[in-house]
Amino acid sequence: MTETLPDDLRADVQTLWDYHDMRHEPRPADVGIGLGSHDLGVATHTADLFHAGMFPLIVFTGANAPTTVARFPRGEAVHYREHALALGVPDAVILVEPAARNTGENITFTRRLLESREVGSVVLISRPYQQRRAYATCKKLWPEVDVVCASRPLPLDDYVESIGDVDRVINMLVGDTQRIAVYAERGFAIPQEVPDTVTDAYDRLVQAGFTERLIY
């Protein structure tokens, strides 16, 4: 398992990393939505934003994926909740959506969970490289809500170190980049501009063998 970025891949990985960062400024919202994944840092940052007064209510959403079942056997959202409680978030402000198995379901099932509440704005908290896909999905499936994206503010190298597996991070970055175009074509998300520099970096990383998270 490699834990540091190889020099010959660094520029292309950084290009994709920068592309997926929506660079949204945090602002107060009605709800913070922590999107389930293998990255417990999502729950950490959700707790941080709650303590900073960014939102009064949290929804953790996520069942399991093949990449998370070993780490979070009771489900991503359940483990996120437990982590947030350990960080001092009151149980009364946390809702758990334990069934979603992809980002579309994260948004759809969370929206359904919140139907009885007046929700005009949300903060989507995700892995850094999931921001753009989460934003595009939310704008497609919940277009009337004002959405801001957020992730732990870590530089690329620090994030790779926190995960401890550079190949996993690169494969995820490549997979999420592919999904920006493919999911828009399939009607799962709104279209996003993909600069040529991003397409070129993506192509080189695919040619280098980072294909584990590709849809086809």
UniProtKB/TrEMBL annotation:
Domain DUF218: 42-147
Any Pfam family matching the protein: DUF218
InterPro entries per record: Cell_Envelope_Assoc, DUF218, Rossmann-like_a/b/a_fold
Signal peptide location: none
Highest taxon above the source species: Bacteria
Official protein name in the record: DUF218 domain-containing protein
Organism in which the protein naturally occurs: Amycolatopsis oliviviridis
